[in-house]
Amino acid sequence: MGVPSGGPAVEPDTATQSVTHRDIRGASAGDTELRDYRAAFAAARVPMALVDLDGRVLAANRALGVLLGVSPERMAGAGGAAALLGLDGDTHAHAAFQEVAGGRRARLRCTRRLARADGGGIRAEITLARTGPGPLLLTVEDVGERDALREQLRHLRMHDPVTRLPNRALFLERLAEAVEQAGVRGTGRIGLCHLDLDGFKAVNDTLGHRVGDELLAAVAHRLKDCAAAGGHLAARLGGDEFALLLRNSTGTGQATGLAESVLAALHAPFDVGGHRLAVSASIGVVEREAAGSTATQLMQAADTTLYWAKADGKARWTLFDPERNEHRMTRQALARTLRQAVDRGEFVLDYQPLVALDTGRLRGVEALVRWEHPHFGRLAPNRFIGLAEEDGSIVPLGRWVLAESCRQARTWQQAHPDRSLVVSVNVAVRQVWDSDLVADVAAILRETGLPPRLLQLELTESAVMGSAGRPLQALHALDEMGVRIAIDDFGTGYSNLAYMSRLPVSALKLDGSFVQGFRSAEHPNPADETIVEALVELAHRLGLTVTAECVESAEQAERLRRIGCDTGQGWHWSRPVAAAAISDLLSA
Fold first, then answer.
1. Among 146, 176, 193, residue at a domain's last position
2. For the domain that residue 231 is a member of, what is the CATH number?
3. How far apart are CA 41 and CA 17, in angstroms?
4. What share of the chain is helix, strand, coil (3-state, %, to 5)?
5. How far apart are CA 285 and CA 249, in angstroms?
6. Which residues are in the EAL domain (predicted)?
7. pTM of the shown model
């Protein structure tokens, strides 16, 4: 397919004007313009040839002869253009040549490897074009050096200068290729280890970036050894983040085994910059069927799993867990829409009875918020209250719960004026700090007409212990207003009754864990009963009432009554129910 070779190589001094004039006799010998054209053609540094409409080389200039190592005269004749353009056996190229020759196409361009007379070869870009009614002009450009330079620049662009490993761009490219090819051949599976160094920032901050770079290079060397053993790809994604790609993974065991080998390889100290440094890594491992996955999805899963490895204690690997990831995705989705959900009115309240243990009569209710999510359905408070406290939406949500609870309590009071039903509402500590809780409570009581004595605010023990400044002032202001203050989940935090005596608290709600020991009548735990009895006695001496939470049986209720608890709350009497069900209880 190359240009015919043979004959002496072109000598620079003898080939300066080597042009074949055969078949150009139609031009006048005295035509100055044609002589100029011939001179320019012969002296041009661009390798060129004139080709007739039948594919014969009419003339070749010196530059083309030098490029191919063949005398220009020897290139003239039948078949020359076919050899240069690779027309033989290529029907598509031959048809394209005929279109150019017939004037139906302006040019033909192709890239081929051409043979030289000395046995070597070059990669060339060949262009055939019409320049007028006469012969066709063929030009040849050696693109080998250009391609080599381009490849060199690509290598520099796609590799990390510090570690010499592939960088993020090249890794993502290889990952995408592996995903695409996994379904064509091999196991059809793919594995990914995403890791970063624990505490690397401290090295940079204390010893400087030079030592930090030396450490990264040393880590990269060990990672490359780990990857090479299984034919895997190691890359530096940036900073102290690295990744290893397992093409055609044989299963989860191979991916986790590679993670184990990395942890073992990094266990030995590094001697860099005159310092002996110990580093560890956290690794997120993803291994799955490649079908249905994309490079982006795999990287997101690996990044998430790396975060889990950090959260689980560092210096370890963690395997991607779809269920755990679903929980995380759900949490993120809830966090994005939580604040808007308050404005859209997606929250509702259920109420759980507080029952007097001595008489069995309904003393009050605890308001419990639920989220009627348009996609996830009804959500309990443990699914979103923590999120609300994190992003501050607990303030508008808490204000709505308080207002709706007081409105409903006022409705019950008006319908049953002989019953003093207390509504108990949970208050997050952030509501005390980030809003004017006292002003909000006063305004809501005023708007609803609910007497302050029928409102009880529940705060957790850890939230009120050590209260000072604004929280303590708020508690005293609410107490002076006539609102009851209760400590929720008592016994799980400080349990400092001496300090409690200095707070304006009127009630304690014992955490349900104390009641759990009362479940078995056959095997009671006397220590549980002794602790609860002591707490109740101390609380009563301080003038506080006591409510036991999570009461599930009549036996538990009876034992708590004997101990002296004032009220109980739990499934033994009722699960949280809608306001209408409480109305029915009041009417019974």
1. 146
2. 3.30.70.270
3. 9
4. 45, 25, 30
5. 12
6. 331-588
7. 0.60
Task: Identify whether residues 403 and 547 lie together within a single domain.
Answer: yes
Beta carbons of 134 and 101 less than 8 angstroms apart? no
d(CA 112, CA 123): 6
Q: Is residue 4 part of a domain?
A: no
pLDDT digits (tens, 9 = 90+) for 330-341: 888 898 899 899
Summarize the confidence of residues 515-535 as an average pLDDT.
Answer: 73
Question: Same structural domain for residues 488 and 345?
Answer: yes
Separation of alpha carbons 171 and 151, rounded Å = 17
132, part of any domain: yes
Looking at the fold, whether 380 and 503 belong to one and the same domain comes out as yes
* Token duo for residue 518: 């009362």
At 569, which amino acid appears?
Q
Q: How many residues does the structure list for the chain?
A: 588
**DSSP H helical segments within 312-435, as ranges?**
322-344, 385-391, 394-415, 429-434
Q: Which of 298, 173, 296 is nearest to 233 (CA)?
A: 173
Residue type, 414: Q
Spatial CA neighbour of 140 closest among 70, 53, 54:
70
**Is residue 20's pLDDT more than 50?**
no
| Residue 547: strand, helix, or coil | strand
> What's the CA gap between 244 and 235, in Å, rounded?
6
Parent domain of 91 = 41-146
- 125 has pLDDT over 80: yes
Q: Is residue 506 a contact partner of residue 484, using CB atoms and an 8 Å limit?
A: yes
Other beta carbons within 10 angstroms of residue 544's beta carbon come to 20
